[in-house]
Amino acid sequence: MVQRLNDAERAGLASVLPAWQVVQGRDAIRRELRFRDFSEAWGFMSRVALLAEQHNHHPDWSNVWNTVRVELSTHDAGGLTEKDVALARAIDALLA
């Protein structure tokens, strides 16, 4: 089983994933993205779904029109792990 991030790894999250925020009240990270319209937002979600399958790690997310909110936490570990960091980096790379 994958291990939760230690204190040093958590402290470095802001520099490694500057667009992501720690979720208050939950051991997770979140990124909210806005697109031109629903179609562009849905296309992004489709690409992330393929990444999630490759990583065997799936986000908690929502979509309202042009806004997508992505939250990452490793449920079977009970919080943030390297799996979340890796998927967040892959998502960021899609946007680069």
Summarize the structure.
It contains four helices and four strands. It has helices spanning 7-11, 13-16, 38-55, 82-95; strands at 21-22, 29-34, 60-64, 67-72. The termini are far apart.
Give an overview of the whole structure.
- This protein has 96 residues and is α+β, with helices and mostly antiparallel strands.
- The chain has a single domain, classed as Transcriptional coactivator/pterin dehydratase (Gyrase A, domain 2, 2-Layer Sandwich), CATH 3.30.1360.20.
- 43% of the residues lie in helices and 20% in strands.
- The chain is built from four helices and four strands.
- The chain has helices at residues 7-11, 13-16, 38-55, 82-95, and strands at residues 21-22, 29-34, 60-64, 67-72.
- The protein has a four-stranded antiparallel sheet with strand order 1-2-4-3, with helices on one face.
- A hairpin with a 6-residue loop joins β1 (21-22) and β2 (29-34).
- α3 crosses α4 (82-95).
- The longest helix has 18 residues, at 38-55.
- The radius of gyration is 13 Å and the shape is globular.
- The N and C termini lie far apart (31 Å).
Annotate the secondary structure layout.
Elements lengths: L6 H5 L1 H4 L4 E2 L6 E6 L3 H18 L4 E5 L2 E6 L9 H14 L1
Antiparallel strand pairs: 1-2, 2-4, 3-4
Helix pairs in contact: 3-4
Query: Helicity level, as a percent range?
Result: 40-55%
- Overall geometric form: globular
Q: CATH fold name, please?
A: Gyrase A, domain 2
Structural class: alpha+beta
CATH class category name:
Alpha Beta
* Terminal residue distance: 31 Å
CATH superfamily: Transcriptional coactivator/pterin dehydratase
The topology string of helices and strands comes to HHEEHEEH
Order of strands in the sheet with most strands: 1-2-4-3
Give the strand content. Answer: 15-25%
- Unreliably modeled segments: none
Could you tell me the number of beta strands?
4
Radius of gyration: 13 Å
Number of self-contained structural domains: 1
Number of helices: 4
Q: Characterize the biggest β-sheet.
A: 4 strands, antiparallel
